Amino acid sequence: MRKESKCSLVLYCGTLGVQRNSLVFDPVAVEREQVLLRSRKMLAEFRDNCMAANVSTCACVRLWMQNCEECMKVLSDPQKRAVYDQYGEEGLKDMPPLGSGGATFGKGSGVRNGFNPRNAEDIFAEFFGSTPFGFGSSRPARSGRFQPDGGKFGGFSSIDNRKPPPVESKLPCSLEELYTGSTRKMKISRTVVNASGRQVHESEILTIDVKPGWKKGTKITFPDKGNELPNQLPADLVFIIDEKPHDFYKRDGNDLIVNQRVSLAEALGGTRINLVTLDGRDLSLPITDVINPGYELVVSREGMPITKEPGNRGDLKIKFEVMFPTKLTPEQREELKRALVGVK
């Protein structure tokens, strides 16, 4: 007769939310897969919650993490499972840990269920490679999660804690959006692994706040929003800013460039340039200098916003092209000669 214990198999399974009745039909395959999948899901939830809250003094988190490891070790170790099935938790308390040379440990030994309880941060780090917890471990995390038997649990591979390559997508933006900033709503569809370990599709709308001055190639990362595969961490989703060509302005770093054509008369006699800025303002610039080939007018602080210097902007550079007449009458030639006599 199996000795009933306060901590029965139901409680072991309840730690991870595994269905007790499913263990009856296939105690080898079903329970181990459920334990691994469910523990991965619940630890992922703990990871997300701990990022947003201070859990450094939360004893229940420590206890749950240690119970989680205990549950996985008992259910996946044939020797411990056999002892547990026959004698319950009390039998495990007197079971020697591996490598102990057969010494037994009683209730007062400080050893629980045949193994030493470990720091919750160590357990978390073995699942995710790092930890947001404040109750510290001084030991570095191992490269794989729960690898007591060469990185496997009774024939099942441990969860890979390496992130897959990020999923990248271009985000085309007009020059006006990059000048003033904008808010973009992006609907995504991705594959996720549900609590039962199956891949399903889900849709979500992500909000991207495009900051004034962002450049082509700027990356916006949404952690864990990429596709998810069984026994792997989900990939990150990365949007990369792409700049649409503009009909009038061209960007050069933080500066804006405009090409302006003027007649020979305007080049020699002066003119006024009227522009509409990227944020809709009217800009009128008088030109009093003689415009010669290669002439460039620089208007300070009328370029693109500088993201790292709020309130500051680049310059607006106006490059001129002088249009020479293709033919002149004899009278016009004489008038030009008289007008330009002595001009250097």
UniProtKB/TrEMBL annotation:
Which residue range or ranges hold the Chaperone DnaJ C-terminal domain? 167-325
Q: Which domain of life is it from?
A: Eukaryota
**Which Gene3D superfamilies is this protein grouped with?**
DnaJ domain, Urease metallochaperone UreE, N-terminal domain
**Protein name, UniProt field:** Chaperone DnaJ C-terminal domain-containing protein
On whether Nucleotide-binding is a keyword of this UniProt record, the answer is no
Keyword annotations from UniProtKB, A to Z = Chaperone
InterPro entries xrefs: DnaJ_C (IPR002939), DnaJ_subfamily_B (IPR051339), HSP40/DnaJ_pept-bd (IPR008971), J_dom_sf (IPR036869)
Task: Decide whether keyword Chaperone is in the record.
Answer: yes
